Amino acid sequence: MRTIVNAGFWIGVYLFLIMAPLFVLLIGPVPPGRGFWREFSVGLGFMGLSMMGLQFFLTGRFRHVTSPYGIDVIYHFHRQISLIAFAFILLHPLIIMISAPEALVFLNPISSPWWINAGVAALVSLTILIVTSVKRQKLRISYEPWRLTHAFLAICAVGLALTHIEGVGYYVQGPLKRWFWVGLALAWILSLIYIRIIKPIGMFKRPYTVEKVIKERGRTWTLVLRPEGHQGISFRPGQFAWLKIDKSPFAIREHPFSFSSSAMKMGGLEISVKELGDFTSTIGDVPPGTRAYLDGPYGTFTVDRHTAPGYVFIVGGVGITPVISILRTLADRHEKRPLQLFYSSKTWEDVTFREELDNLGRRLKLQVVHSLSDPPENWEGERGRINAEIMARYLPENRVDCEYFICGPEPMQMAVKKALQKLGLPLENLQSESFNFV
Ligand SMILES: Cc1cc2nc3c(=O)[nH]c(=O)nc-3n(C[C@H](O)[C@H](O)[C@H](O)COP(=O)(O)OP(=O)(O)OC[C@H]3O[C@@H](n4cnc5c(N)ncnc54)[C@H](O)[C@@H]3O)c2cc1C
Hints:
By secondary structure, this protein is an alpha/beta fold. Helices cover 46% and strands 16% of the residues. It has helices at residues 2-25, 36-58, 63-66, 71-99, 114-134, 143-168, 175-204, 320-332, 354-363, 388-394, 410-422; strands spanning 208-216, 220-227, 240-245, 255-258, 269-274, 291-298, 311-316, 339-345, 366-372, 382-383, 403-407, 430-433. It has a six-stranded antiparallel beta sheet with strand order 4-3-6-1-2-5. Helix 2 runs antiparallel to helix 4 (71-99), helix 4 (71-99) packs across helix 5 (114-134) and helix 5 packs antiparallel against helix 6. It is elongated. It starts with a helix and ends in a 5-residue tail after the last strand. The protein binds flavin-adenine dinucleotide.
């Protein structure tokens, strides 16, 4: 109930803030109207800018804001709402030029006043930002340069748009309106200071040391992290944190990883990383004693938020990491409810935590169903991707009441969701974790 109230509260705050520039327009002396379409386009521009500015808060990982929804939902919202904000901002000059074609002269930057050029530059920055984000994978832009450019373009777009408003000067006259815009700009700058300076200072005070690096099956490595001079993070099983390793906490480069150890384990914690790209492929070479910093915990992919008579986990490849944490935690809590794990891997040798799952099977009421896409010759188990037929063979009779947790690559998640629908299972009982925010 508290979560719903909290979630509703933040939605209300969000709506109020995007409308705020319009309310402020009405305070004090209002300049004469310049025709419906012109004023309408200005309203859209103000709302679009307000939405863009709020993006800094959405991605600032403020715990009160993220916890009712889950940070993956917040990032999803960030992506979708930016398209709406972009449409609003784009419509602002388009409507003006269509309703008053004489405004087309402003397309010439040489003869246009500086504030018009600032507005155009804001729009160009925003367009590049949106295209490089939506098409990042198609354009083959790797994550790190994209992230730096993304932050730079966002600051440019918002800064230039504010300059444009100040330059036009139509709705910023009077101390109240002026202070509103100055306050808004300051709030955006403060949120950047919080993310880039205050948060890292907190991480700097709570360092970790890599105690061990353990080789697991399936090109995966487990980092055992020991907190230095503090108690460590207390997390819920299934949650994750951003990891910075062998770098200052102020470094831009960080990667999200689920905790793989039991949430009941005091002190040290574990993170298991599959070799995938330039950063993850170096994890096996990290020497013990290396400094690490964590920003977390985040995420709602946890059994602790969902009470059910039984849990079903459906994972592919490295998607096992949050689930192994959940299973280890449930074993430490002497869980008695029935649990099922559908685990799809390429080969039998690649099954990460294979032996650990056997051990957990002795401590829990856990049934593990392995499915291999490249099984050995004598394999008698399931083959190929997890589908409705495989699940139908094993799911318990009370399957409708169970809670389902899916973690794996996007195509696998889509296929499993369809399979669950085919089996008549309610999608509201479904939790999923995507290892890809962007
Ligand atoms: C919530 C969450 C939990 C995760 N848990 C695990 C886990 O327990 N174990 C595990 O092995 N992997 C996990 N991942 C995936 C892991 O973060 C990426 O595989 C890793 O960041 C890739 O980095 P790279 O430089 O080696 O690969 P690259 O080849 O550079 O990147 C591969 C893809 O990973 C994504 N990615 C890269 N860098 C980042 C970054 N800094 N932040 C976000 N995404 C990035 C991008 O979509 C990119 O296209 C998780 C991801 C998320 C979002």
